[in-house]
Design goal:
By secondary structure, this protein is of the alpha+beta class. The chain folds into two domains: 108 residues, Roll (Ubiquitin-like (UB roll)), CATH 3.10.20.70; 312 residues, 2-Layer Sandwich (Creatine Kinase, Chain A, domain 2), CATH 3.30.590.10. It is 34% helix and 19% strand. The chain has 15 helices and 18 strands. Strands 8, 9, 10, 11, 12, 13, 14, 15, 16, 17 and 18 form an eleven-stranded mixed sheet that branches. Strands 1, 2, 3, 4, 5, 6 and 7 form a seven-stranded mixed sheet that branches. The chain is globular.
Length: 474
């Protein structure tokens, strides 16, 4: 995969000889249709399917064009402006496992001969190029969690793997925690087994599947790769999960907390760094099994820019319902195991950043499945490079349970909480010079404007909780 950031349209076009070779392979495999997918501001893939006969035109920049500004909440252009042109990255071609007559390829958007300034994939590629100029390259792994559901006879969404009567429809006894449960792992293997087979076929090197804390919640753990490839895999995976679920009469939600009693669905970002002139050496690994000084400087950069990263990696109103220490009625326990403060610790899951005991990768636990992964990893990369270049001191490792530490002690030790809601996070994002550099002024302005509107629409809505709490109390 080419993560090279081109500034001229002609330079970005793939080699015609490689295009012809790829077309021949696809036709031999029975592919009839091409899904050339660009990424919108919220990290969602968009496309116009084309017949494979137009593959050469697509790769020459003469395929479908898009009025991106008409559909993607980016009003900086109007109806009299030029359309955007997708240029496919042919290194990302994959035959769709759910329909092998279709092939998927990721594309970058261009506008009037230049990289489109609201293309998140272009933003990540630019961040990768700027990090390389400073001598660094990042590798990433993601821990995607999701809840699998189905529709009941009344048209209501219910957990897919939960065979007890629904609430209010019969005896629903106290149950053991869903996490790691063998019985439910076995019950879900028709769905999970198909996913495992597909991910192995894709060459992602899946390690395991986890039944997580919420009923019908699962996590897929597969191997790390370079930053751009991992971002692409994350987007492809979200579509793959939905398509495979449909085959089993199910659907998948990436909403962090569909109900109050659910464990949050996160997507922890695990990142490590290498030197461009010394590849294959993880600079976070020090001597004698210790973490290196570089790792702590990168942690310092992530903490310095923690609020801005969180605003993008936890980008919905619902995200912040999960970033709390405990929840009454939580299935499988009381504590959430979610991060609550911008701190770091050695294997401390109550902190935003964890230095795991099993790998030399910094784990950012304040990220969820709704994120725009390109912007999240772009900000992560830029923050780590900032910490490395400026040798930022992250302070002392915090290896205590933040859930039980009292407020006075946190204040005394200057332990900063994560943003409490989307509004707080976005207000910090709007002040971030780093975010403006990574996203570009136009994209950041559009992102902030939409998220402020999202918060205001939510805040103006009367919820069921408010009715239950106040209707007869006052």
């Amino acid at each position: 995969m080419s993560s090279h950031y081109f500034e001229n349209f002609a330079d970005a076009l793939p080699d015609p000889a490689r295009v012809a070779e790829q077309k021949k392979k696809l036709q031999s495999a029975g592919v009839k249709y091409i899904l050339s997918c660009w990424i919108d501001m919220f990290g969602i893939p968009k496309t116009k399917p084309i017949p494979i006969s137009d593959f050469e035109l697509l790769c020459a920049g003469k395929g479908p064009q898009f009025a991106v500004h008409s559909v993607s909440f980016v009003p900086e252009l109007g109806p009299a402006d030029s359309d955007q042109i997708p240029v496919p990255d042919i290194d990302t071609i994959v035959i769709c496992p759910w329909d092998r007559t279709c092939a998927w390829v990721f594309a970058d958007l261009w506008w009037e001969g230049k990289p489109y300034n609201l293309c998140p994939r272009q933003a990540l590629k630019r961040a990768i190029a700027e990090a390389a100029d400073k001598g660094y390259a990042m590798f990433a792994g993601i821990e995607p969690e999701f809840i699998t559901m189905k529709w009941n006879d009344h048209g209501q969404p219910v957990k897919a793997f939960d065979n007890d009567p629904a609430p209010g429809e019969g005896l629903r006894p106290r149950r053991q925690a869903f996490g790691y449960d063998l019985e439910f792992s076995v019950d879900a293997m028709g769905f999970l087994g198909e996913l495992i087979d597909i991910i192995e076929e894709l060459g992602w090197n899946i390690h395991d599947v986890v039944t997580e804390g919420a009923y019908s919640q699962f996590e897929l753990d597969f191997h790390y790769t370079d930053t751009l490839a991992m971002a692409d895999r994350f987007v492809f995976l979200r579509v793959l999960l939905k398509e495979v679920a449909k085959k089993h009469g199910l659907f998948v939600t990436f909403m962090p907390k569909p109900t109050t009693g659910d464990w949050r669905s996160g997507a922890h970002l695990n990142t490590s760094m290498q030197k461009v002139d010394n590849p294959s050496v993880n600079i976070y690994q020090g001597e004698q099994g210790k973490w290196s000084d570089d790792a702590f400087h990168a942690v310092g950069g992530l903490l310095k820019h923690g609020s801005a990263i969180t605003a993008v990696a936890c980008c919905t109103v619902n995200s912040y319902n999960g970033l709390v220490p405990k929840v009454g009625g939580l299935e499988g326990g009381t504590y959430t195991w979610a991060p609550t403060h911008m701190a770091y610790g050695r294997n401390n899951r109550s902190a935003m950043l964890r230095l795991p005991q099993s790998r030399y990768a910094i784990e950012n636990r304040a990220a969820d499945m709704c994120m725009n992964v390109y912007l999240s990893l772009g900000l992560t990369l830029a923050a780590c490079v900032d910490g490395l270049v400026n040798k930022t001191d992250p302070g002392r490792s915090l290896d205590e349970d933040l859930y039980v530490m009292d407020a006075a002690e946190k204040t005394k030790r200057n332990i900063t909480p994560l943003p409490r809601n989307l509004l707080e996070a976005v207000e910090q994002l709007a002040k971030s010079d780093l975010a403006e550099k990574v996203m570009g002024r136009a994209m950041m302005r559009s992102f902030v404007a939409y998220k402020i509107d999202e918060w205001e629409r939510y805040h103006q809505t009367v919820t069921d909780w408010e009715v239950r709490e106040y209707l007869r109390l006052y």
